[in-house]
# Entry
Amino acid sequence: IAVFNEKNPKANVAVFHLGARSGRAMVSTRIRLATSQVVVAVAQMSDGSFWSSRASAIVTLAACIEDLS
# Structure
């Protein structure tokens, strides 16, 4: 399972590797976002197919902004 965002300086948020011994394929994480944007998750299934989902994340107050200059 790979998680990406569209506007943060680093688009790759997280990658999770799950196998048959992991049990139910479910993960949870927290992401720091500077602005409102779309977050996308892509999962490769055991049969080789890919599933994806996207969600709009609304940021009302950015708690941490890095100086990228």
About this structure: The chain is about 0% helix and 35% strand.
